[in-house]
Each structure stands twice: as C-alpha cells, then as structure tokens.
Amino acid sequence: MRELGDFTQSEPLPDFLSGIIPETPQATSLTTEAQPGQLPDWLANLATETEPALDSAQSPAPSAPEKPSELETPALTLPNQEAATFSPEAQSIDSLLMDVPDWLAGFTPVAETEKTPQTTGTDQPDLQPVELPSWVQAMRPVETMLTGTESAETAEEEIEQKGPLAGFRSVLPAAGVLEIRKPRPYALKIQAGENQLAQAALLEKLLTAETEAKTLTPSEKATSLRPLRWLIFVILTLVVLLPSVLGTRLVPVPTLPANSNTPFNRFYDTLATSVPENALVLVVTDYQPGFAGEMEQAAVPVITHLMRKKAQISFISTSPISIEMGERLLEKSSTFYTENQQQPPDYQIGQQYLFLGYLPGGAAGVKSFAEQPHKMVGIDSVTGNLWQTDMLRDKISDISSFDALIVITDDPDNGRLWIEQTGAQRKNTPLLMVTSAQAGPLIQPYADSGQLSGLIVGLEGGVLYEQRDAQAGQIYPGHIKALYWDSFTAALIATLLAILFGTLWSMLERLRNQREDNEQDEAQ
C-alpha cells in the first residue's frame, strides 16, 4: 500500500482509480500524520459495531509463530482507543479504502508499534478438558484410569538399604528372583496300546532273564547215555593197547607199489641213489609237537637211512617250538639199530649233525635263506658261527650246495612255502617231503607235477619205507610194524564200528520217539 501511495504522488491517477482515491493537494499526502480522535465516518461506525465482539475476546489466543511475507500486514486495533496513533501508511490506506467489503468488516488497522499485552498464568481462565479419542485413552496407565486415586506403591516407595543398589528407589526385590523352587512333578505316562505294552513287557522279561543264573538240571537222556560213553572208551582203549603190549603182528602191512614212478618209490630211489655217502643234507622240521606221534613214525625210517649212509645232517625250523624235534628223530633212529642188535653210527654234534636254529621271516626268510644261508641262521652268542665248523666250512654258498633237502611238516602251507620259495635256487638239489595224513592230499599235486622229487604220507608211508629199506638178516622189522601197525589198524576198525553203532542207535531212538508221539496223539 505504501508503494501505491508513492505511485499517486509521482504519477497522475488513472481513470479507474480516479473515482476511488480523490485528488488531494501535496500538503495532504499519505505521509501526513492523523490527528488522534479524528476518524473517518465509516471507521467510527465500524468501531461501534465491533465493541461487543472485542469485549468477549479479551483473552488472547496463543500466538502462532510468525511467517515471513512479502508485504507486512499491520495489526488491527479498536478505533476508540485514546492512545491510538496512526502512521503515514495507515493514513494512505484510509484514504485509499473508501468502501470496505463485507469480508473486512470487524477489522481495523493497528499501529505496528502497538502490541497486545500478554496475560500471566494467573489471569488465564480454566481450560476445559478435551475429549480424547478411544485409542489414546487405551494407552493410559491403569493407575491413571482411576480418577481421584493414586497408587499406594508410588506414594510410599521403598529405598534400598543394602547392596550395590543402596539408596535407589523402586528396586525390584531379590527374593522372588533368587527363590529356588522345587520343580513340579509331572507324571510320565506314555500313550501306548495294549499290543505295545505287551511287547515292552516281553522285552523287560528277556532282559531280566539275562541277569539271572540258571541251574542246569541233567536230562534223563544224557544220564542214560553216560554208561554207554564209558563203554565206548573202555573198548577203544583195549583195542589200542593190547596189540602194542602183546606185540602181535596179525594185520598184514600194505604191499609196495609196483610203479616206480609213484611219489613213494621216487622218494626212496632218490635218497638211495642220488644222495652219496657223507652227503650234506638239510632237514627241515616244521611240525608241531602234538603231531609227533604220527610224524616221527613216518620220518624215523628216513633218518635211519641217512644215518646208514653217514650223511651230515643240518636241522632247521621255521617254527620256534620245533627246533628240538631233530634230536628226537636221531634218538629213535639209534633205537632201531639197537633193536636189531647192531651198533648205531657214531653221530656227534658239530661233526655229523648241526642245529642251525630258528629261521624267521616266513616266506621272505625262506627266500633269503635259499639265496644266502649264512646270513640268516647259524650265528649266535652261544654256539658262535656254525658256518665255520669243520662240517660246513667253505661248503655252503646257497641252498643248492646241499646234496638233498628234506622237509618234514604237518602243514600244507609250510610245504608249499618251501616248494615255491626255493625252486629257483635249488637247481639240481632234490626236494623230498614227509607229511601227515591230512596234509598229504594237498601236497600230492606238487609231487605229481614233478616239483617234488618224492613224497611220504603218514603212517602208511612210514611202514612202506621200513619194508622197502629192510636189510638182509634184520631181526627187528621196525617200530611201525612191531608196535603201531596192529594197534593203528585195530583202532581204525573200532572207530568205524562205533560210528556205525551210533548211527543205528540214533535211528532206533528216533523211531521210538515218533511211536510215542503217535500214541499220545491217538490217546488225545
């Protein structure tokens, strides 16, 4: 509006403003100050109409923050105030606004310097409570919903007296936190059907029965068979002992095989013709002491034949418990000469025979011995270096340096070991073998294929060798024929009869039980 006033002073009024703003001389410009109490008629009428409204609005509303604007709008005040002063801007506006529209009724301009006095807190009227929404009322604390009451706990708050929180208010009590309570017992009941309960009871019964000691009561059948067992024992004992004690020779010995190419005949022919006098022979005793009764009777005729030829025998074993078996073979062979009233050959250890000891290492040990015998056995702190004795000095380089190799074993694996691991180094040295009756069938293929120079199997092979090696004028036929062959044959016959009798007894017992069962079924 100030700019409008300046415009009227500097420029002539246009036609559309000539009717609104009257032309006044320069003395009566907008900048002239209005005299107090001199108001236009339209403002005087307006003041009389707005006095009742101003009386009701004595309490001013809270002031809102001021907002910047391009034009400053002056505040309005009552026209009848005695101390009212008008600025030049207000006079120019009064001169411009001749006719006030209806929407400006009730407003009067007020000087900028005039401010509405602020009321203090004591003069403010009581505020009426405002109705809050339901969602705001739901957020109130419970205590505040009880109008006119206060919580007794907030009024009388206890102060902590002990501990690190001494002096603080509203401290949670520790009694409820640290209180130890006994857990509530719950019944452990499994919802199981009758079928599952029955199976669980059966399992429990089985587990309980495992811990209970059971008393075994002898059955009537076992009691009735005990006399029969004693009877069989007595019969077998008499059959075995009587021929040996009486010295009977009722059972004929087997005849010698006519074919000279059989393993037995090749064994004897090789030892009789291929092995010279005073030959170096290596004897391997690889059998357990429990088989000595059979193995010694089969091997003694062979050792007797070697002693007659004055062979120099070296004993060795791949089993630590079979090392001394060679000593027993020499003793039994000497007995053969004594029974025939002949002087046994004078065999002295270190001159006619030696014990090279235990050969360790299994297959690798046998392979190494075949290549370098003096590095594997024959050296210890007791006997010294056996390879430097008169019997072996400068005579043995490998296993082919021996004139013959004889293996006495009850185990087919040990026999196969010596056959396979010494084959390449033996060259022309014959390999002969004496086995038990149970190992003979497994070693027989090696003899048939020519990998063995000869084979003697069990007690039968021993008695054949005694018969083949019998000398003219010999009184004693041999241990096997004189002491064992009749007993051995009688024991075999008695064993076969016992097996046959037991089979017939079992069949009769089964038939009797079936008949009793049938009679019981018919009676029911």
Detailed description of the structure:
It is a single chain. This protein is α/β, with parallel strands linked by helices and 524 residues long. Among the domains are: 81 residues, no CATH class; 208 residues, Rossmann fold; 42 residues. Helices cover 44% and strands 7% of the residues. The chain has 19 helices and 8 strands. The strands form 2 sheets. The chain has a 6-stranded parallel beta sheet with strand order 3-2-1-6-7-8, with helices on both faces. α10 runs antiparallel to α19, α12 runs parallel beside α18 and α15 packs parallel to α17. The relative contact order is 0.08.
Describe the structure concisely.
This protein has helices spanning 2-10, 15-18, 41-56, 88-96, 134-137, 142-145, 152-155, 175-178, 194-211, 220-246, 263-274, 292-308, 325-339, 362-371, 412-421, 423-426, 440-448, 458-468, 479-523; strands spanning 280-286, 312-317, 353-358, 379-380, 384-385, 404-409, 431-435, 454-457.
